[in-house]
Structure formats: C-alpha cells, structure tokens
Design goal:
The chain is built from four helices and no strands. By secondary structure, it is mainly alpha-helical.
Length: 79
C-alpha cells in the first residue's frame, strides 16, 4: 500500500469513526461506508490540506469509491 492509499484510507476511517481495515479500495463511499455530505466536506478539506490537491464539488460528484479518490489525487499530483 503506497502513501496516498494509506493517507486516504486513514482520513476516511478517522472521519467516519471506522476501523481502517474496513476501508477497502473498492468500498463505495455512501453505500458501504455510510458517508454523508457533511463527511464528504470534512474528508475533502482534510485531504486537500494534507496533499495540496484541490478537489472541487464537481469532482466529488464523480467519485464513488475509495479507489476513485486515490486515483484522483495521484493523477492530480502527476500534473
């Protein structure tokens, strides 16, 4: 597991109050992990601060899984 993967899973598990082992790459943020709009805002804010990658509300609409967030951040860091 690389650093971005660990960071994203850590931030999500901390915000949702769940064990990091339950946050899988293929987990659906809403359906599997129970993320609501408040959680989404907090997670985005935390990830933006920790990675320097801006995640817009429009971008977030296309993000459905933990892997989607990881890939978004990795792609943004490459550019």
């Amino acid at each position: 597991m690389d650093d971005t993967n660990k960071l994203v899973k850590s931030v999500i598990s901390e915000q949702l109050g769940s064990n990091i082992s339950t946050v899988k790459s293929d987990s659906l943020l809403v359906e599997n992990l129970g993320m609501d709009s408040f959680d989404a805002v907090e997670i985005i804010f935390d990830l933006e601060n920790k990675t320097g990658v801006k995640i817009s509300q429009e971008d977030m609409l296309n993000i459905k899984t933990v892997k989607d967030i990881i890939e978004f951040i990795k792609t943004a860091k490459e550019h």
